[in-house]
Amino acid sequence: MYPYKIAVIDDNQAVLKSLKLVLKRVFVSVVTLPNPNSLPSLLESEEIDVILLDMNFNAQRLDGEEGISWLKYIKQQPNPPAVVLITAFGDIGLAVQSLKEGAEDFVSKPWDNDELVEKLLAAIEKRETRQRLDSTLREARQLKARWETTRQMTLYEVENRHILEVLNECGGNLAEAAVRLNISRQTLYNRLKKYGIMI
Amino acid sequence: MYPYKIAVIDDNQAVLKSLKLVLKRVFVSVVTLPNPNSLPSLLESEEIDVILLDMNFNAQRLDGEEGISWLKYIKQQPNPPAVVLITAFGDIGLAVQSLKEGAEDFVSKPWDNDELVEKLLAAIEKRETRQRLDSTLREARQLKARWETTRQMTLYEVENRHILEVLNECGGNLAEAAVRLNISRQTLYNRLKKYGIMI
DNA sequence: GAAAAGTGTCCAATAATTGGACACTCTAAT
DNA sequence: ATTAGAGTGTCCAATTATTGGACACTTTTC
Question: Whole-angstrom Cα distance, residue A8 to residue B154?
Fold first, then answer.
């Protein structure tokens, strides 16, 4: 049993039922929707890990356009879930377009249960990798900004910032901080007093 | 005419010829190969931007395995080119697998020339985006390493590093550096002498 | 080729840093 | 409960560093 939340969206009640039967033995939470209209509110209220999304919700349109547009919607959310698309009327162009729009995988009906679960888990893993990458990039931007400001700082400003950081590292232990900074304890006191850094 | 180098690999001479005819009006350099065996040496000797790769080079095997394995080879090179796969025997599974292995796009024979060129250019753009991301990540790793070492530096070490950086910013102009650092010129001299930083 | 800016060095006044000392307050182990 | 060990806050006098100003000289810039 994996600790992930999955949402399954398909307009065919029978398909939905059988998918739920399979998936609820694998995922801790399985939400089924007969159409994607309530997807926005679902995404707002719950932190879904992966969505298994049918491409057609309308007997009149079998071109998959609806699936693609919902895929786009999902992927432009902040921290979007993984998306695996599923369709009976798939062609190569549709599959390629889906993956280029950010879907993690694409499966055709009829599906193989084991393979489907495997793909869903792989999709979740892929999403987690992307999340890690995102946080690395965020961190990188912060560091870069910090570096940019450092270069136009005064010597004292840089000194004080470093003092504060080391002090923080030492959990406010002045004696240890002084040793780490290789200055005397009095000097550290003087600095803190002079710059109003009271602890 | 775009300043990109493209390599086209297809075992069908007629296809190769007609592709070359189309592409040499768009790309500054078009290399055609009748099979992928000389691809490694080509990649070593030239900086190829995009590869248009057929999936089958053997009348006996039409499952695309060969194309996939060459795709994998290409994508594990350092700074790999963009890859667009082309096939007449494509199925959805093959297309999905290709994109998941890192191909930028997938087209089916028979192809539309305008669409093919469009996809190749989009693939190149995608690769350039990836290159930018890579360099951002490299830079991020450097900054992070720097930050990690900073936290265990002595106050004087941090000071001196900052002095050197500002000095560098000022192109070695001591007077300007002293102003930026907000210390007197003599103090800057003393530091440089004391720490053997001669310029 | 003159003006402006930068360099290298000196000086004495001022300010910061230093090690050592002392009384004190925690805190963790006995 | 007692106590040793570590940390704090403050003092001091000796040492060091920083400062602004000054000067002759070189380099840049217009």
Answer: 56
